[in-house]
Amino acid sequence: MKVLVIGSGGRCHAIVEALSRSPKAEKIYCAPGNAGIAALAECVAIKDTDVEGLVAFAKENGVELTVVGPEAALAVGVVDRFREEGLKIFGPTKAAAEIEASKDFAKRLMVKYDVPTAAYETFSDFEAAMAYVRRGPLPTVLKYDGLAAGKGVVIAQTYEEAEATLRDMLLDTKFGEGRVVIEDFLEGEEFSLMCFVAGHNVVPMPVAQDHKRAYDNDEGPNTGGMGAYTELPFITEEDKAYAMQNIMQRVADALVAEGCPFTGVLYGGLIKTKNGIKVIEFNARFGDPETEVVLPRLESDAVDVFMAVAQNCAPEVKWSEKATLGVVLASKGYPGSYDKGYAIRGTECVDAKVYHMGTAIKDGELVTAGGRVMIVVAEADTLREAQLKANAEIAKIECDNLFYRKDIGSKAFKY
Ligand code: AMP
Ligand code: GLY
Fold first, then answer.
1. Domain count along the chain
2. Which ligand 1 atom minimizes the distance to the CA of 143?
């Protein structure tokens, strides 16, 4: 079978790698792909949002299954267009992807269907928003309603900070025309529960935990994710069963009831609070970097899994019992400004998976080409071993302009 993967980061590298393990994937294309993906797939220079270009490529090359990585492609309706053309594709329609694209849509759905989440209100008027904030406790959580590439959430510790943020979001044009969801601050341990969803069918993946802050001990600014691991000792089987029943299944059913059934990966960004598990956010796609630690544990044939979902059926999914842990190498300065083009050496000596996030080939040499550059993922029988291995292997990579966190997974050892 010929398969096309849309996207380019570490998440797509992990998807392509899972597909490459399937004997059914005779040819894998990736649009646009990256320097690491090029070892496993034929990279084609089509942007992930160039829907017509992607449709034309799939038709001309006899692609039988397409898998979508990034949210930007979903938001421009790539799945809707492929389906109109009778092409099989793994991912939600634009309408179903609203669960990620619009925080207000997600919140309204959760309230209507009794899915546990923080209390909230939505505002487009600055004065009304400020009045609401002043009536409530601090810290308060301000979320720009729309895709803001992870930059749209501010946890304001003071009323002054809240006011400045609301000015930015509602009065300035920095974010464009918009609304703000203001919600209660939740306290607890965050975790990610991704599920394969096809209408009412909901099949969970191993639970993972992202590390969003740039530096050790969760210090520094928020990033796209500096590392992740599976399994989480503080999330019990009962917790998982609760989250599956009251959150993931309920939302899948709700989307069917609302006339926009979901197919693809529904990502629950959840938090275990004193008062139970609640939703922080939903994404309509594989999480990054969670996917890079989850998919290595997939023992089922990835083509079968993605194809089943694309055909609106429950996939049969088997996972290995291994612990996985991934550490991201990022360019110095990230998530702020950083330089590119530094040579990277030693990846061939690494005895672990290396997924490329932002790399390029320049004059025949592998160089840095993004904020997050690569992720090294170790598998082992225990999380401690996986952590030791990931840290030992990452040290083999030489580059003058990279940094990484040395404490990925350490939270798990507190429990
Ligand atoms: P989001 O873009 O919704 O994932 O938010 C980014 C991050 O902000 C989350 O991963 C949380 O760490 C934090 N966050 C969002 N909403 C809340 C909330 N209601 N309470 C506490 N932290 C939150
Ligand atoms: N790891 C968070 C995300 O993929 O949005």
1. 4
2. 3
Which ligand sits nearest to residue 269's alpha carbon?
A: 1
Q: Is the pLDDT of residue 146 over 70?
A: no
Q: Is the CB of 288 under 6 A from ligand 2?
A: yes
Nearest to 261 by CA among 83, 140, 412, 130: 83
Q: Which atom of ligand 1 is nearest to the CA of 210?
A: 10
Distance CA 295, CA 47 (A): 24
State the pLDDT at residue 176: 61
pLDDT at position 140 over 90: yes
Q: What is the pTM of this model?
A: 0.95
- Do 296 and 218 lie in a common domain? yes
**Which CATH number fits the domain that encloses residue 148?**
3.30.1490.20
- pLDDT tens for each residue of 115-130: 999 999 999 999 999 9
Q: Is the CB of 106 under 6 A from ligand 1?
A: no
- Residue with CA at minimum distance from ligand 1 atom 11: 280
Question: Which ligand is the nearest neighbour of the Cα of 181?
Answer: 1
397: domain CATH number is 3.90.600.10
Which residue range forms the structural domain that includes residue 230?
A: 189-310
HSE, CB side, 13 Å, CA atoms: give it for residue 194: 23
Contact call for residues 268 and 289 (beta carbons, < 8 A): no
